[in-house]
Write a structure and sequence with these properties.
Layout (H helix, E strand, L loop, with lengths): L1 E5 L4 H11 L5 E5 L5 H4 L13 E4 L13 H11 L6 E5 L8 E3 L6 E3 H7 L3 E7 L8 H8 L5 E6 L4 H8 L1 H4 L7 E4 L5 H5 L9 E3 L11 H7 L10 E7 L7 H11 L4 E7 L3 H10 L4 E4 L13 E2 L1 H6 L4 E5 L2 E5 L1 H7 L3 H5 L5 E5 L3 H12 L3 E6 L2 H11 L2 E4 L12 E4 L24 E4 L8 H8 L3 E3 L1 H17 L12
Parallel strand pairs: 1-2, 1-10, 2-3, 3-4, 4-7, 7-8, 8-9, 11-12, 11-13, 14-16, 17-18, 17-20, 18-19, 20-21, 21-22
Antiparallel strand pairs: 5-6, 13-15, 15-16
Bound molecules: 2'-monophosphoadenosine-5'-diphosphate.
């Protein structure tokens, strides 16, 4: 189940958060350390207002929470709040036995917090946090936390993909512990949250406001990834990159899988080492994955088979597992051509200016020259443009000389990152005056209309938006992944 972490400062706001996200979650965790001081006194009443299993947690600052009270006071407050109808109470693994003795006017003397919970059939979640890494004795630690029949919760911070692999081995190593919560925090850990069932974890935490590093929103976890429906038979696909979480491809593929009722999920993997990822891919029996910056060339040596385009371009954006072997293809190549293929076939595009000479540009230059289009490559670093130009027998020049080509090309393709992020609003070839006859093809899809496209449109040119190529190459990937056509009837508002 998905468990919503509640970090509002009042009980009423937390209840409203549960109601807002009700259709996507199966449990919620009330974080006492985010509540106002006077709300703490009435927190025990919260479970009677919410119809979901609830976890009660009072997190110390040293474990990523906000509570700065001394241990005696913190556990006394937790004891008072725990008097309500909670399903679970979280108690950190290193709490001292003596600090668990709490005052209660109903009983003379002190009452042990844990014993009082067990007497009321409230399960204890025994938690361990590591914000710096993953302990070497991870498996032993989970075993020890489960020792007294409690539910072990281990939230650790992978520093590399090898740490992520260790987390995914938990289920195999610790299958005898039926109830456990295993979380990889931070960006590297996001696949462990989406694929929590593959770790044997009983739940995955979500929040509206990234209450912990790497939290996804309940709607995204539920509607994009269907994390609750992932089971032993779910086929895993993904995208590897660094960075990777900005990509829109999970929306394309997961919606496609859902529409054709294919039991599969497409997960973003932040990848620091391609070699490690292939190990993880074996472990998770990944069936195929997309490749984005900066790994498009780095994956090629790991492939057993490569398509003609990959051999020629030296860069691969799609890897599929076929009969136990990794095969690489390049759907950027065909995805780029699709929106303009009629014009190329009819001979109305004879010459093109390609701005940029990075990985994306390589696929495009090859796609164009293979179809008889004469290409000139412009780049900030002229040496890079020269290399690609020599390799493809194309012309090359600097960005500053863009104006020398105005009026003599049918197509201008913009492949650089100039126009997005910090460079939003910037046109990489401001000196180039469009005549209105060129097709202006932009690869950036966010923002939808870049300064480059605006300049072209002002001159009356036909624009091709980055979204078109993104979707076309994604559809081709989808076919390569699962053998079905992409369902044309689903809207793709990326
Ligand atoms: P991709 O695989 O998406 O093409 P890349 O290989 O990093 O990414 O290539 C990025 C392209 O954007 C390159 O052509 C790069 O020019 P350089 O070769 O001179 O680095 C271009 N680029 C990135 N930032 C730029 C900037 N601020 N001004 C001009 N060109 C830029």
């Amino acid at each position: 189940m998905l468990c919503l972490t509640l970090t509002a400062s009042t009980l009423a706001e937390n209840k409203a958060l549960v109601e807002k996200n009700r259709s996507w979650i199966g449990a919620a965790e009330l974080r006492l350390d985010h509540l106002d001081e006077d709300e703490l006194k009435v927190a025990s009443a919260f479970p009677s207002t919410v119809d979901l299993p609830l976890i009660l947690t009072y997190r110390r600052a040293s474990d990523g929470g906000l509570c700065t009270k001394n241990e005696k006071d913190r556990l006394q407050t937790l004891y008072e709040a725990a008097k309500g109808g909670w399903a679970y109470v979280d108690i950190e693994e290193d709490v001292k036995k003596s600090d668990l003795k709490c005052k209660d006017p109903l009983f003379e003397g002190r009452v042990d917090l844990e014993e009082s919970l067990r007497a009321r059939n409230i399960r204890i979640i025994r938690s361990y946090h590591d914000f710096e890494g993953v302990p070497e004795d991870l498996f032993g630690r989970v075993n020890r936390l489960a020792g007294k029949g409690d539910i072990p919760k281990v939230a650790v911070t992978p520093q590399s993909l090898l740490d992520v692999i260790m987390l995914f081995q938990v289920e195999e190593q610790l299958a005898h512990i039926k109830e456990k919560i295993i979380i990889g925090m931070g960006q590297l850990g996001i696949p462990t949250r989406i694929l929590y069932k593959r770790l044997g974890s009983m739940l995955s935490f979500v929040s509206d406001n990234q209450a912990a590093p790497g939290h996804l929103g309940p709607r995204e976890m539920s509607e994009v990834y269907h994390a609750d429906r992932i089971d032993r038979n779910t086929h895993i696909y993904g995208v590897i990159g660094n960075p990777v979480y900005h990509t829109s491809s999970p929306k394309i593929h997961n919606r496609g899988f859902e529409a054709i009722r294919y039991n599969a999920v497409y997960v973003p993997f932040l990848v620091d080492s391609v070699r490690s990822f292939f190990k993880l891919a074996e472990l998770l029996k990944i069936r195929g994955f997309s490749v984005t910056i900066p790994h498009k060339q780095a994956v090629v040596p790991y492939l057993g088979k490569t398509s003609r385009e990959v051999k020629q371009i030296g860069s691969c954006n799609t890897v599929v597992r076929i009969q136990g072997m990794w095969k690489g293809i390049n759907t950027d190549y065909y995805g780029f051509l699709t929106p303009i293929q009629d014009r190329i076939a009819s001979g109305s595009i004879k010459s093109a200016l390609v701005v940029g000479s990075g990985g994306a540009s390589r696929a495009i230059v090859y796609a164009l020259i293979n179809h008889g289009v004469k290409v000139t490559i412009l780049n900030r670093t002229v040496e890079r443009a020269r290399k690609l130009g020599d390799e493809t027998m194309s012309g090359y020049d600097s960005l500053e000389n863009a104006h020398l080509y105005q009026g003599s090309v049918d197509l201008v393709v913009q492949t650089t990152s100039v126009g997005m992020g910090e460079l939003e609003g910037t046109n990489p070839i401001p000196s180039f005056a469009f005549t209105g006859k060129e097709i202006a093809y932009e690869l950036i899809y966010r923002p939808e209309e870049t300064a480059f496209l605006q300049a072209a449109k002002r001159a009356g040119c036909e624009p091709v938006f980055g979204k078109e190529m993104l979707i076309e190459q994604g559809k081709l990937q989808f076919e390569a992944f699962c053998g079905y056509h992409f369902p044309h009837w689903i809207p793709l508002d990326l």
